[in-house]
Amino acid sequence: MINFKKFNFKNFIRLDLRWKLKRIGKHLGLNIYPKFFIWKGFKGLYSKFIFNIIFLSLALKKKNQIFEEIIRITENYSDKNFLISPPSSGSNYLRGILSSYCEIYFKIGNGVPKFDSLTNKWVYSFTPVKRDTLFHHVNHQHMKEKFREKFLSDTEFKKKMIVFSRYPFIECDLFKIGNNKKVILIREPFSWIVSRYTQFEKNLFYKEGELNLKLINDELYRLNKFIKYWINQIKIKNDKFIILKFEELVNDPNTNVLKILNFYNYDTKDLQIIEKSIHINSKEFALKNLDVKFVGTRFTDPIIAEKKSEKIKDYCNEEIRRLNLMNNYKELISISKN
Question: How many CB atoms lie within 10 A of CB 195?
C-alpha cells in the first residue's frame, strides 16, 4: 500500500510518467516500470504497453509545446517581416545569414551552423525565421527554445521574427500576409529551372534517356504563377517591399544584406557582424568547415548543372517564351527600380 504520509503529491505531479510509474511501483512493491524491456511473449506485450503510454505522454507534452509556440508567434502585432521566395532561389543562403547574424548579435552562438548529412539540414543555435504553415511547425516540431528568454524576451523576438513563405507556391495558413514588410527573393528563370531540374530530374515522370518534360512544364508554370501573383499584389496593395534578385544577393551580399536588415529594422551599427554572418554562410566557408563529402542539396555541382543546362536549354527557352515568363520576370524586377 502507498504510505500517503510519505507521498508528496506536488513533487509527484512534476515527474514524467516514467518516474511516476517507478514511484508508484516502489510504494506498492511492484516493478510497474520494467527494469529491463523484453519484446517477446507476454512480457513483450507489457513492454509494448509501457512503450505506448510513455510515447503518448511525451507526444502530448510536445504537442502542447508546439501549439503554444504557434499561438505565441501568430498573435496580432504590427509590421510583420516577411521573406518570400520560390524554392531554389537562394533563400537557404539568406535565412542562414539572418540566423547567424542573430546568433552573434544576441550572443547565443558563434553563428556557424552544423550540417546534418543524414537529414540534409543546416542546424543553427537560433533563428528568427518561422515558417508560415501549420504543417511545417508540426512536422518539424517547432517549439520555443528552452532558454530563449535568457537572451531575448518574447516581445523582442516578435520584433525580430521573420515569416518565411513560398506563397503562392505553398499556401500561407498561419499568417495574413497583408500590408506587411516583404522581401521577395527571385531568380532568373532559366538559371532557376536548371537548378530545379538538376535536383529533381529523376523524382517524377522520368524515363531513361528522355527529358522530364512534365517536371519542366510544371515547375515553369508554378514560377510564372508566383511572379504574376506578386506583380499584381504589389501594384494593387502598394506594400512595403524589396524585390531582390538571387544573382544580386550572391554577387554583392554585403550591400544587399545590409539593405534587408535595415528594412526589417534590425540594428546594423556593427558591420563586422554582418560581414562575419555572410562569410560563415558562403559556399567556400561552408564546404571547408564541413571537411567531409557534401551530399546535401544546397550546393549544386557546377559540372552536373552545366550538363543539365545544355540538355534542357532548347526546350526550356521555348517554354519560357511561350509563357511570356521572361517578360513577366523583367516586369517584377522593374517594379523594384521605379
Answer: 22
Q: Within this chain, do residues 154 and 285 fall inside the same structural domain, yes or no?
A: yes
Burial letters for 172-187: b for 16+ Cβ neighbours within 10 Å, e otherwise? bebbebeebbbbbbbb
Residue 69 resides in a domain: no
- Hey, what long-range contacts does 294-297 have (CB within 8 A, 24 or more apart)? 294/115, 294/117, 295/117, 295/120, 296/115, 296/117, 296/120, 297/120, 297/199
Based on the domain organization, do 242 and 312 belong to the same domain?
yes
- How far is Cα 255 from Cα 66, in angstroms, rounded to an integer? 36
- Assigned domain for 327 exists: yes
Q: Angle between the 213-237 and 325-337 helix axes, to the nearest 10 degrees?
A: 30
> Could you give phi then psi for residue 59, rounded to 5 degrees?
-65, -40
| pLDDT given for residue 289 in this prediction | 81
Please write the tens of the pLDDT for every residue from 173-205: 999 887 789 999 999 999 999 999 998 888 777
Q: Which of 61, 92, 107 is the last residue of a domain?
A: 61
**Are 85 and 50 in the same domain?**
no
Q: What angle do CA 182, 300, 328 make, to 5 degrees?
A: 40
Contact 166, 131 (CB under 8 A): no
End-to-end, the C-alpha distance of the chain in Å comes to 80
Does the CA dihedral 133-84-188-117 come out positive or negative?
negative
Instruction: Indicate whether this model's pTM tops 0.85.
Output: yes
Q: How many CB atoms lie within 10 A of CB 96?
A: 23
- What are 21-60's pLDDT values in tens digits? 888 888 788 889 999 999 999 899 999 999 999 999 999 9
Domain total in the chain: 2
32 and 89 together in one domain: no
* Domain containing residue 24: 4-61
Helix (H) or strand (E) holding 132: none
- Residues 84, 44 within the same domain: no
Q: Cα-Cα-Cα-Cα dihedral of 78, 140, 134, 15, to 10°?
A: -90
- Asked whether residue 68 is domain-assigned, the answer is no
The answer on 204 and 83 residing in a single domain is yes
